[in-house]
Design a protein that fits this description.
Radius of gyration: 21 Å
Shape: elongated
Strand order of the largest sheet: 6-7-9-8
Number of domains: 2
Order of helices and strands: HEHEEEEHEHEEEHHHHH
Helix content: 40-55%
Largest sheet: 4 strands, mixed
Strand content: 15-25%
Distance between the termini: 73 Å
Length: about 200
């Protein structure tokens, strides 16, 4: 008699470092969708994994003082995108936070994606995936994309010299040709800011 699906999944999970995020589809080679979910439920009951959202499991890393170390909502979003082989673009306060332009951590995260639009609930927080325009997805540089989304969030009327200097510093290592290409995908006022940074006429 062959090894049970539960034991196979148990072994597969233990082959990874703690802190790893899993989905039922991570184990599809071991059996049907129903069988895999049942095995995951049993492994959750035994304390090997935690279900942190519907269909999302964590092989928990434990700290002797802090207890279980949960992944950030952003890490969960990245794991979902990787599973779906989709591209995601942080928006709003999330983009500002990633660039160090704000210390405020948004309660709910919104991403533009070329994957399936959906909302995922993680505890009291939500991850929303919205369809991105093909134009925006043709951008060449991830940093430039973040800057475009961050400037959208700030708004043209609230851009000051301090922000411009910070954006300049963030973009200084991005090749000019990529900056120019991606600037042309943004609203005119954002394109003007980026072109000014690279002294483009």
């Amino acid at each position: 008699m062959g090894e049970s699906i539960e034991n196979q999944i148990n072994r597969a999970i233990r082959n990874h470092k703690r802190g790893k995020i899993f989905f039922p589809s991570s184990f599809k080679k071991y059996g049907s969708s129903t069988a895999v979910r049942q095995a995951l439920n049993r492994l959750e009951d035994k304390g090997l994994i935690l279900r942190i959202a519907q269909g999302i499991y964590l092989y928990p890393q434990k700290h002797e003082v802090l207890g279980i170390l949960y992944p950030s909502v952003d890490q969960i979003a990245i794991a979902i995108a990787k599973r779906d082989k989709a591209r995601i673009i942080p928006t709003g306060l999330n983009a500002l936070n990633k660039l160090g332009l704000s210390t405020q951590v948004p309660m709910n995260l919104v991403y533009l994606t070329d994957g399936t639009p959906r909302t995922v609930t993680v505890g009291k927080r939500k991850i929303k995936f919205k369809v991105a325009s093909p134009k925006l997805l043709s951008a060449r540089n991830e940093t430039c994309l973040l800057v475009i989304q961050a400037l959208r969030e700030i708004g043209s009327e609230k851009i000051d010299n301090v922000t411009i200097k910070k954006i300049n510093s963030i973009l200084k290592n991005v090749p000019d040709d990529e900056l120019l290409h991606d600037a042309n995908l943004a609203p005119v006022w954002i394109a003007d800011i980026i072109k000014h940074i690279i002294n483009y006429p």
